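Hello, quick one for you while I still have it in my head. A protein chain has come my way and I'm curious about its shape. I'm sending you its amino acid sequence along with the backbone structure tokens. I'd be grateful if you could look everything over and explain what you see. Here's the protein in full, and shout if anything looks odd to you:
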Amino acid sequence: MHILLVDDDASLSQMLREYLAGEGIATTPAFNGLDGVTAALSGQYDAVILDVMLPGIDGNEALRRIRQSGTPASTVPVIMLTAKGGDVDRVIGLEMGADDYVAKPYFPRELVARLRAVLRRQREPAAPASAQLTTGRLVLAPGKREVLWDAGAFELTTSEFDLLENLMRAGELVSSKEDLSLKVLGRAREVYDRSVDVHVSNLRKKLSAASGGGAEIETIRGVGYRLKVQA
């Protein structure tokens, strides 16, 4: 595993790099937003750890440029580092396409757990082509990490892809936010945690754009979400 760490705190970055090395994770640092964007789009990294507070351009703007680059690396998993209690930064980061966030100050062990959760499915052996999921005109191939509407592919982030896969597997059943947090983010949902809601909102927009309204995610008030696809 090779991680890009974008944080302007050199001493903290060095301590985190040493800890990650002990976990078998190679880390390359970048100390400002512009360098972080360039490195993230190089295609060399399995994931990016991106601080919100950066010189030049901040982490949210760096993430926006990564996600909107239109390159294969635009879907690289990104975990944001936010200030403790920085709820607004967390929501903005998730809306921009971050896969998850960790609040500063953090325990390195928690950060490693989040990294492994994001990358777990990507590192699993590819599923056979026959294992693809089909719901109406929507097709998802877990092994290829590919999703199509009417045979036209569209890009999703790691968390969005895993969220769609879980909703498709659930079929007519409603998926609770708690269950989706465990399966998609790899952690129990915390009180007032909006991560799943924001990922659903992002996925809704992409499904609507790709399907012309033919695929949508229903909100079942007080319960969770269910996928609805026109035949």
Observations:
- The CA atoms of residues 2 and 45 lie 5 Å apart.
- Residues 129-229 form a domain with the Arc Repressor Mutant, subunit A fold (CATH 1.10.10.10).
- The chain is about 40% helix and 25% strand.
